[in-house]
Model the fold of this input.
Amino acid sequence: MRRIIGLIVLAVIAVGFILTFSQIPFGKDKIDVANYYIKKGIEETGAVNIVTSVVLNYRGFDTLGEITVLFIAALGLGAVLFVERKVQKRASDNQEDKTKNASLILRTGSHLLFPLILLFGAYIFVHGHLTPGGGFQGGAVIASGFLLMYLAFPKQSINKKSSSVVESLSGLVFVGIGLLGLVFSGYFLTNFLPKGIPNTLFSAGIIPIIYIAVGLKVGFELTGIIDDLLGRSR
Amino acid sequence: MIFQLILIFIMIILAVAAVIFKDLINAVVTCAAVSLITSILFYFLQAPDVAMAEAAIGAGLTTAIFIIAIKKTERYEK
Done:
């Protein structure tokens, strides 16, 4: 009986969704906001990648909120795992030497790949206003490079202090540039620097600076999450 | 178009397999494969930004976090 009722409810929801979605004109030239961004985006912000111009210029404040959410998530994870680690430390003192080294192939390969992965991540967030990608993607690539190093060398960890200094400084750069916009033009996160010529590296005003800060912040934050989960740095 | 349909079909099979598997490591690896195919589909839908984020976070970091969690708890579903 319950199954039949569940199926009926599912069918009602499915019909509702189909009726709703059939009303939306997908792919038609009707959405005003998107049309405005596509037509005026390059001219107003100087960023060739329209996604970047929306994320950091038209909706820059939302991005600041997004970064704050990520920061709070990392902070909460660290707080929860820190309490557990204190308890575990006494129990696992004598099995310290059980952690084996990774295989030769993984170690050599990670030596070769790690600088290339870092370079690729940096390329993605420095060129965020020109090519697809940006701060979040570049940061995730950098964090995956650090993850490779964590897998290859089980006894080592990043320097937690300097990584958190970089993280906090890049967060401050984002807020500071926003406040500078408030000083120069009267709005938070206004693009107060010259726009430059589109399609060149030094263009789009404050967007590259903010994306570099976002990339470093996301990269070191995700690395810190991996470090907390593995419970390695003491 | 046919290539994308094949990808979607494989994706559905992998997603069902991830639910069925009792060995959680297998389930996590199939989840990563679903993420990878999702990122390829995003690329075909002309959203390279989202494809990049999906490939790096969905297929890379999330898988690692799941595997760390499995390593610290239990490997087999009861």
User: Anything to note?
Assistant: Chain B has a mean pLDDT of 89. The first helix of chain B runs from residue 2 to 20. DSSP finds three helices and no strands in chain B. The CA atoms of residues 12 and 34 of chain B lie 8 Å apart.
